[in-house]
Amino acid sequence: MWSAGMKWMFLIVGTTIGAGYASGRELWQFFGHESGLAILLFTIFFSICCTVIMEISYKKKSTHYLPVLREIVGEKLVKFYDVMIFFYLFSTTVVMIAGSGATGQAFNYSKWWGIAVIVVALVVLFMKNIDGLLAINQLILPLLIGGLLFILILFTYDQDLHLFSHMSEQRNWTAAFPFTALNILPLIAVLGAIGDKVTSKKEILIASIGSGLILGIVSFIYNNSLIQIADEILLYEIPLFAILKHYPFEILIFMSVMLWFAIFTTAASGILGIVTRISEFTNKPFVWIVIVVLITMIPLTTIGFSTLISFIYPIYGILNLYVLTRLLLFPLWKKS
User: Fold this and answer.
1) Chain Cα centroid distance, residue 33
2) Higher confidence at residue 17 or residue 209?
3) What is this structure's pTM?
4) Domain spans of the chain, in order of start
5) For the residues of 38-74, what is the DSSP string, one character each?
6) For residues 164-203, b (16+ Cβ closer than 10 Å) or e, as one string?
7) Which ranges does the record mark as transmembrane (predicted)?
8) What separation in angstroms does the CA of 31 have from each of 120, 145, 227, 262?
């Protein structure tokens, strides 16, 4: 039970901690000053939503997201959100691939090297279908979360920051709603694809509560660190590098590798959602669908990493508010 629960927990965290989140760009886009309460609300909302999605997926024994999506939004809106979730996964995976290019640029390499590496790695990963993704999540994510927390806590200590010094100032609490909504849609896609593999409700609780707590704690410490370097963030495509510049080059290398793996796991989750949906309409091998999808994504990465996040993420955050509301109120309206 614990092993399976942890496996799904890492899948959820891996889906959420991608280029936008791990780099700090997504957190700064939504949170920033006076956001402690917003992050607490996000933690609660996120855990509830994951529980509802996994329980529906478990009951339906689903292998792709459409049955789960239909249960959440209803028959009338399922076609609209089916199209939107597909384009969401497509565009955010483009963001991840662009993020790999931006990571390469941080070391004075061409962005095309970073893009080529992640594309090839994704093709190799999906030669074993979903099993490769679950295995790499369990291997990489403890290192990523541990490394990120270590840097953020060290930065907090070195800068003599006080995590709870502005708790009376919480005017940005409403940011919890679009931020949670933004991160929910990919989870419907990914968790909807593993319904036939979940074996008990206890696994669901471990995965949902555990992932919510991890993301809530990391988000709070990370956001507090970014507030201290607010004036410098505009100068960096990836805000995390504004924190890492205070530390030895070896730490920069390690965290850059971890950041790339965060980008990679989220891109893999997006590809999983897209390909499992497409496979309903074709008998082509899984890996061949992956290759075709990636080829169509590459030209769109020329838009730029930070531009994609600042434009796409707020739009999806607003559009997904209806899905968030349905998930939070699911037990009530389903009973009625």
Assistant:
1) 22
2) 209
3) 0.81
4) 2-335
5) HHHHHHHHHHHHHHHHHHHHHHHT-SSSHHHHHHHH-
6) eeeeeeeebbebbbbbbbbbbbbbbbbbbbbbebbeeeeb
7) 38-58, 79-98, 110-127, 139-157, 177-195, 204-222, 251-274, 286-305, 311-333
8) 34, 20, 10, 20
Q: What distance in Å separates the CA atoms of residue 289 and residue 316, rounded to the nearest whole number?
A: 25
The secondary structure element, H or E, covering residue 5 is: helix 2-16
Distance CA 240, CA 225 (A): 10
Query: What's the burial of 205, exposed, middle or buried (CB within 10 Å: 0-12/13-18/19+)?
Result: middle
Tens-digit pLDDT profile for residues 61-93: 888 888 888 888 888 888 888 888 888 888 878
Torsion over CA: 74, 79, 84, 85 (sign): positive
Only one residue has tokens 């840097």, namely 151
pLDDT at 335: 64
Q: How far apart are CA 290 and CA 96, in angstroms?
A: 15
Question: Would you state the structure tokens that stand for residue 113, as one six-digit string?
Answer: 């090297």
For 2-335, CATH number out of 1.10.3720.10, 1.10.4160.10, 1.10.1200.10, 3.40.190.170 equals 1.10.4160.10
Helices 130-158, 111-125: inter-axial angle, 10-degree rounding = 130
Write the CB contacts of 47 (distance below 8 Å, at least 6 apart in sequence). 208, 209, 211, 212, 213
